[in-house]
What we know:
By secondary structure, the protein is an alpha/beta fold. Helix content is 36%, strand content 27%. The chain has a domain at 9-95 and 166-255: P-loop containing nucleotide triphosphate hydrolases (Rossmann fold, 3-Layer(aba) Sandwich), CATH 3.40.50. It is built from eight helices and twelve strands.
Amino acid sequence: MNEVSTPIFACSNIHVWIADKEVVKGIDLVVNAGEVHAIMGPNGSGKSTLANGLMGHPSTTLEGRVELAGRDVSALAPDDKARAGMFLAFQYPVAVPGVTVGSFLRAAVSAVRGQEIPIKDFRKELLARMEDLEMDRAFAGRYLNDGFSGGEKKRLEVLQLLMLKPRFALMDETDSGLDIDALRIVSSGINRAVAAGAGVVLVTHYQRLLKYVHPDVVHVLMAGRIIRSGGPELALELESRGYDWLEGAAAAAGGA
């Protein structure tokens, strides 16, 4: 783990509601630059709601403190959080017919960097990152996620990650729907971001992603609370034993 005086990301006493239902019920998390944290848990445990809430998705209501490199960003709108250096890769990316991948990414990169990127410079950088992800150049001219396969959508999320160069990234089930080749390529992109110093939180059901993106810390989220944290061996234990053996700990946390 990197030794830094100020974590790249920290959140404390996080509660997230969807409508009038409290889904996330008090979570603390600290991630240093260049660290990977994995959040695992069964369906309905609150993993995606936590990621969406931290980023400020309008379907959620957030309570608690969120810090990015020591700055309180709790009340910022999602676009301002993005400018500050936060990034969310969606579990279900939406299609935007009529907007090409290239034009979308140029607008997003310009917004985050605070200046218009010359087309020549942008194209050179985009093509280099697409080559890293083994993406055909024609991909840049396609409409955003329109008719994309699941694997293509996830590669596009990682392409955005590499182009936007955030300080901290939330990757929500980026491995879902990927075959083994796509999983390897997507993982290599995430590892590039980590090597460049980004802190990353991977939300996932399965240990298979963690064979390629090695976590420093694994957290188990059940019933809206983190009930256990450990090293990479915890993911292996979950893979072999499932989540049933932790139900007692989840019940105890719920009654705390």
